[in-house]
Amino acid sequence: MGMQDKTIALHDVDLSLGRGAARVHILKGISLEVDRGEAVGLIGPSGSGKSTLLMTMAGLERPDSGKVIVDGTDLSGLDEDALARFRGRRIGIVFQSFHLVPTMTALENVALPLELAGESDAFERAEAELQAVGLGQRLHHYPAQLSGGEQQRVAIARAIVPNPAILVADEPTGNLDENTGGSIIDLLFALKRDRGATLVLVTHDLNLARLCDRMVRLRSGQVEAGAASAVA
Ligand SMILES: Nc1ncnc2c1ncn2[C@@H]1O[C@H](COP(=O)(O)OP(=O)(O)OP(=O)(O)O)[C@@H](O)[C@H]1O
Ligand SMILES: [Mg+2]
């Protein structure tokens, strides 16, 4: 299989962020391929570049050099508008800190990506997705009226409602207690199992990373040699 057959393929990606003295060379020649339907656990020390790598895969950061190919599309060929549309259709993103719109209800938050895509059944689908994550009784609550675990479930419902082929999640359980975190993880893996989604999961939790098909370990902006091995 060539690079185009992989759901995500990074080839020799370099990325620096910040200006002047604060400029940091974060990703250093990263090459990585993720198969369709595969779950990859991305681990590594704090500051090793995990979040930056995830954002680069999701098209939220552009590399200085190298290629990022998602679902056969070279992201460098897309302008900002085309990239935003591509993300909206293909990639679900779950941030550690939820990123919900505080002035919108749970239902409005989840319907938002569908409304932006001009879909007429946005609210019906958003309601069904909130029911699927166990929040059918919280449709009209605002984020501030929800617990952390409930907010994270709203964020997951919002990420998966467009049926993305790819889901990237940055420490989705980092702010949650063990039980709530466990149910969030069940939700993410159900998406992989039931809808064949590709999952890239950043985590500090080795037990969680071991649930994935494969672990990739970053160290100082590089994939650690020999660490990208099968876990199962
Ligand atoms: N916008 C930026 N400007 C300058 N440096 C940055 C910027 N964003 C991140 N960095 C630096 O890049 C490095 C990698 O950051 P990143 O957030 O990707 O690490 P991480 O592996 O996700 O860490 P953690 O486990 O703590 O979340 C860090 O040293 C960070 O300080
Ligand atoms: Mg991070």
Detailed description of the structure:
This protein has a 6-stranded mixed β-sheet, with helices on both faces. Residues 228-232 have low confidence and may be disordered. The chain is an alpha/beta fold and 232 residues long. A hairpin with a 2-residue loop joins strand 4 (65-70) and strand 5 (73-74). Helix content is 33%, strand content 24%. The two termini are 22 Å apart. It has 7 helices and 10 strands. The longest helix has 18 residues, at 178-195. Helix 4 packs across helix 5. The structure holds adenosine-5'-triphosphate and magnesium ion. The site of magnesium ion has 3 residues, from helix 1. Adenosine-5'-triphosphate binds next to strand 2 and helix 1.
Question: What's the helix and strand layout?
Answer:
Elements lengths: L7 E10 L6 E11 L4 E5 L6 H8 L7 E6 L2 E2 L5 H11 E4 L11 H11 L5 H11 L15 H13 L5 E5 L7 H18 L2 E5 L3 H5 L3 E6 L2 E2 L9
Parallel strand pairs: 3-8, 3-9, 6-7, 7-8
Antiparallel strand pairs: 1-2, 1-4, 4-5, 9-10
The structure holds adenosine-5'-triphosphate and magnesium ion (MG).
Could you give a quick summary of the protein structure above?
This protein is an alpha/beta fold and 232 residues long.
Order of helices and strands: EEEHEEHEHHHEHEHEE
Largest sheet: 6 strands, mixed
Average pLDDT, rounded to a whole number, is: 90
Global morphology: globular
Distinct bound molecules: adenosine-5'-triphosphate, magnesium ion
Beta strands, count: 10
The count of helical stretches stands at 7
Low-confidence stretches: 228-232
The level of helicity is 25-40%
Strand order of the largest sheet: 6-7-8-3-9-10
Kindly report how far apart the N and C termini lie: 22 Å
Secondary structural class:
alpha/beta
Q: How many whole angstroms does the radius of gyration measure?
A: 17 Å
Query: Roughly what fraction of the amino acids lie in strands?
Result: 15-25%
